[in-house]
Amino acid sequence: MVAAPGENLRINGDRLWDMLMDMAKIGPGIAGGNNRQTLTDADGEGRHLFKRWCEAEGMTVGVDRMGTMFATRAGTDPDALPVYVGSHLDTQPTGGKYDGVLGVLGALEVVRTMNDLGIKTKHPIVVTNWANEEGARFAPAMLASGVFAGVHSIDYAYGRKDPDGKTYGDELKRIGWLGDEEVGARKMHAYFEYHIEQGPILEAENKQIGVVTHCQGLWWLEFTLIGREAHTGSTPMNLRVNAGLAFGRILEMVQAGAMSEQPGAVGGVGQVFFSPNSRNVLPGKVVFTVDIRTPSQEKLDRMRATIEKQAAEICEPLGVGCSVEAVGHFDPVTFDPVLVGRVREAAEKLGYSHMNIISGAGHDACWAAKVAPSTMIMCPCVGGLSHNEAEEISKEWAAAGADVLFHAVLETAEI
Ligand code: HGY
Ligand code: MN
Ligand code: MN
Ligand code: MN
């Protein structure tokens, strides 16, 4: 039965939910979420499950030299560039079940629905699982899509180290997902990414769909502070070279800086390493990453300059050495207005409440937008919570966004 893309065409929400719950069983966390970090054995297991599901739908699965997976559903015009639809299966160490996963499996559900309905598209459809989106184990985030877009070299990527000193390149080989495709050789007609909002706006505004027009820009600034290891009990306060104190003051400064740039700016620290990290030793070295983000290019660059200047002013009187390296960055992104329009039209055609939204989190779509017309679709998440094992969405929200994805992709891939 070949169906035309009428108003009533919907994906199979129960099947999508079952896929999400089956994938969530791989790399379980300790509090109901997931720990399926990039290039761990659990990531490898999730990749195999995804590959099996794609091949069962008649798709062919290619893998590139960064480990990104591309599952292709053939189109009727072999010369037509494919429509890519993807996100990521890797998670934070205490991640939720839906961040990234909803986009990859939502894309697969779109293909399953096309197969159910006997729909043939002119452009092929490529369901994509980008490697290392999270940047939790190997910084920066969106590493593989960054190499794909020509932002990072593959040698830089292969050399990135996790906290145990293991390299991306070695771990990719170890789990057996080093592919043979040249990274970035593939050309895209368009790129769609479906993702949970990871913020509170859609739920608070009681909207089912986020029509994502932009993504805010980001800097990840990795500071290394050098103090002097000393006894916390016998070292007088005036003789301390206290890198831990400098860290605390810089953290307070980042907070105040972000608050001074309201509305629409965030800043904070999620990761810090004290060395030797012993209760009764003043740290000789403190390494931490400042994460700042805002949709405004001007604010983003001002915040970076201010933080670096004031960090040096904090460290100098304490005698603490201070160096900084930018380990992650992208400028604010504007998504493709034609594709954004198709998302909005699909939501309207399907009768879903919707609103324009700027993405607070970074996504592979931010780098895809450098090489092809790209956009995103968002669904709400409970309490706006994400990067937390308690991350939650409803089956209805998941299905509504996938319905919109289905129609926007169908419109772009052409029947
Ligand atoms: O950091 C981010 O925004 C994404 O979750 N990697
Ligand atoms: Mn994500
Ligand atoms: Mn994430
Ligand atoms: Mn820039």
UniProtKB/TrEMBL annotation:
Record domain Peptidase M20 dimerisation: where: 216-315
Record key words, sorted: Hydrolase, Metal-binding, Zinc
Residue positions binding Zn(2+) 2: D99, E134, H387
Keyword Methyltransferase: no
Keyword Hydrolase: yes
Pfam families for the chain: M20_dimer, Peptidase_M20
Single GO MF annotation: metal ion binding
Gene3D superfamilies per record: 3.30.70.360, Zn peptidases
Residues that, per the record, bind Zn(2+) 1: H88, D99, H195
InterPro entries, alphabetized: Amidase_Cbmase, Bact_exopeptidase_dim_dom, Peptidase_M20, Peptidase_M20_dimer
Cofactor: Zn(2+)
Manner of cofactor binding, per the entry note: Binds 2 Zn(2+) ions per subunit.
Residues making up the signal peptide according to the UniProt record: none
Top-level taxonomic group: Bacteria
Family: Belongs to the peptidase M20 family.
PANTHER family membership: ALLANTOATE AMIDOHYDROLASE (PTHR32494:SF5), ALLANTOATE DEIMINASE-RELATED (PTHR32494)
Name of the protein in question: Amidase, hydantoinase/carbamoylase family
Organism: Neorhizobium galegae bv. orientalis str. HAMBI 540
Taxonomy of the source species: Bacteria, Pseudomonadati, Pseudomonadota, Alphaproteobacteria, Hyphomicrobiales
